[in-house]
Amino acid sequence: MKIIPAKNSTATQAVVETSSTSVSDGMEEYDRLKYKLLVLTIAAGFIIGLVVLAVYGWNIALSYAVGALVGTIYFRMLTKGVDRLGGESNRLGFSRLGLFILLIAIAAKSDQLHILPAFLGFMTYKVAVLAILAQDLSSGSHSR
């Protein structure tokens, strides 16, 4: 036997208000995480780019910087794709893969760009992900 509360029941309203509040809190946390990852990606790209410039010179630093820029665009496209999941689209697009392939093809054909530094620059967004992961793991071990 099921007990279904009336439509104007305060218990039903409390459940709806609690679940919508937790969803909005979760979305705010998700938006903060996306912003933090984007800022960390840009900062890591800039700092690593300066180190590459100092150690390897302009040509390699240019390759790294182009890769880091494309990687940042890729990461932004990835977050927008994830935002759309569950809404009007239930699949991830493949345009991001094309962006990566285009970067590598241009680096391979160009006399100015090198493939490995461009690839490593592209992967800079992973540094931000690893930094957040390390921060979460270290804060989790301190709370125990």
* Radius of gyration of CA atoms, rounded to a whole number: 22 Å
- The succession of helices and strands, N to C, reads HHHHH
Tertiary shape = flat
Q: Which segments are poorly predicted (pLDDT under 50) over 5 or more consecutive residues? A: 11-17
What is the straight-line distance between the termini? 43 Å
Describe the structure concisely for a colleague.
Helices cover 81% and strands 0% of the residues. It has helices spanning 10-56, 58-84, 95-109, 115-122, 124-142.
Would you mind describing this structure in some detail?
There is one protein chain. The chain has 144 residues and is mainly α. The protein contains five helices and no strands. It has helices at residues 10-56, 58-84, 95-109, 115-122, 124-142. Helix 2 runs parallel beside helix 4 (115-122). The radius of gyration is 22 Å and the shape is flat. Residues 11-17 have low confidence and may be disordered.
